[in-house]
Amino acid sequence: MEGVARHKVSGGKLVTVKVSYSEKIERIQILGDFFLHPESSLSLIEQALIGISASSTSEEIAQKIFDVVKSNSIEMIGVTPESIAQTVLMAVKR
Amino acid sequence: MKWRVLPLATHDAFYNMATDEAISDAIAEKKAPPTIRFYQWKPGAVSIGHFQSMNDEVNVGRCKSFGIDYVRRKTGGGAVYHAENGEITYSVIAPEDMFPKGIIESYKVICGWVVDGLAEVGIGAQFAPINDILVSGKKISGNAQTRRRGTLLQHGTILYDLNVERMFSILKITNEKISDKMIKSVEERVTSVLGHKKISEEKLYEALLNGFTKGKEFEFGKLSPEEIEKTNMLVKTVYKTQEWNFMR
């Protein structure tokens, strides 16, 4: 199945998540007008979410993102691990 | 440290974006001084943020029929319509240790130069975090920053004239973007210099030049042959390519 969700982060930027999934997330793309340094690291976050259960909780997804952010010294502006996680959940229609 | 100022010049979208990257590389390699450049876009163009989808943000077919270029930036942020003679764009490229470590703090410093420039022509503007400059609550300038190899690059536009109809016909504005601020239309959230002061573009450029160089040691300069070569290379291998512009 495929899903798309768009979410305006309160006081932040716009995040769009496009996802292909069955039991697990098979493909994911995170888009938006946010800032993330270094820019090349967004693909690390996307990679980390591939293969996780499509029925993961928002907290579980946010933790997965946070781990990548921490281990790669990523700086996010206008978006947070939590807001991306919420958008992923919105895209995965359960 | 003495700044190099590259005076207002007009190029296409691909050359403009490639120039910023070539200068950034030269500064990272300690082959160029910190640089402030001013430029315009011919033909008019849309630039999208690093993480945006070209097809989601831009009506590409309409751009083609209007002869408008479209390019992906190295920096994040949103899609911007750069009308020919409708704005002045600047870039500040410098070793990052010349600025506060915090991204928002460094936006505040450089956006302060824009605010100072606008004040010179009697327009009272304010920095509005994350990356906007507002006049009476409406956006007059959008800015975007990245840091790479110890070098800070911030570029931004100062709207001189506003063609809302053209902007709307080229950019795909999402409801979410507007509804968050309870604002009904782009007209209600965007303004331009001409909406406040009837001044020439030359006068605006002079004012911005003063705002950006106030209290700094600087000299007018030009790109080095190496920077020009790198720019031309990046135009061909990155900024004009489908792979880059449609990668998301």
Distance between the termini of chain A: 11 Å
Unreliable spans of chain B are: none
The total number of structural domains of chain B is: 1
Query: Which protein chains are joined by the largest interface, and how many residues does each one contribute?
Result: A-B, 23 and 27 residues
Structural class of chain A: alpha+beta
Q: Per the principal axes of the C-alpha atoms, what is the gross shape of chain B? A: globular
Cα(first) to Cα(last) distance of chain B is 39 Å
Share of β-strand residues of chain B = 25-35%
CATH C-level of chain B: Alpha Beta
Total DSSP helices of chain A: 3
Secondary-structure-based class of chain B equals alpha/beta
Q: Provide the spatial order of strands within the biggest beta sheet of chain A.
A: 1-2-3
CATH C-level label of chain A: Alpha Beta
Biggest sheet record of chain A: 3 strands, antiparallel
Verbal overview:
The complex is a heterodimer of chains A (94) and B (248). Chain A contains 3 helices and 5 strands, in the order ββββααβα. Chain A is an alpha+beta fold and 94 residues long. Chain A has a single domain, classed as CO dehydrogenase flavoprotein, C-terminal domain (Enolase-like, domain 1, 2-Layer Sandwich). In chain A, strand 1 and strand 2 form a beta hairpin. The termini of chain A are close together. Chain B is an alpha/beta fold and 248 residues long. Chain B has a single domain, classed as Bira Bifunctional Protein, Domain 2 (BirA Bifunctional Protein, domain 2, 2-Layer Sandwich). In chain B, helix 1 packs across helix 8 and helix 4 crosses helix 7. The longest helix of chain B is centred in the middle third of the chain and has 18 residues. The model of chain B has no long low-confidence stretch (mean pLDDT 94). At the A-B interface, strand 1, strand 3 and strand 4 of A face strand 9 and helix 6 of B.
Layout of secondary structure:
The complex is a heterodimer of chains A (94) and B (248).
Chain A (H helix, E strand, L loop, with lengths): L1 E7 L5 E8 L3 E8 L2 E3 L4 H8 L8 H14 L3 E3 L3 H11 L3
Antiparallel strand pairs in A: 1-2, 2-3, 4-5
Chain B lengths: L2 E9 L1 H16 L6 E7 L3 E4 L5 H4 L2 H7 L2 E4 L7 E3 L4 E9 L7 H18 L5 E3 L3 E4 L2 E11 L2 E9 L4 H7 L4 H5 L21 H13 L4 E3 L4 H15 L2 H4 L3
Parallel strand pairs in B: 1-2, 1-11, 3-4
Antiparallel strand pairs in B: 2-6, 3-5, 6-10, 7-8, 8-9, 9-10
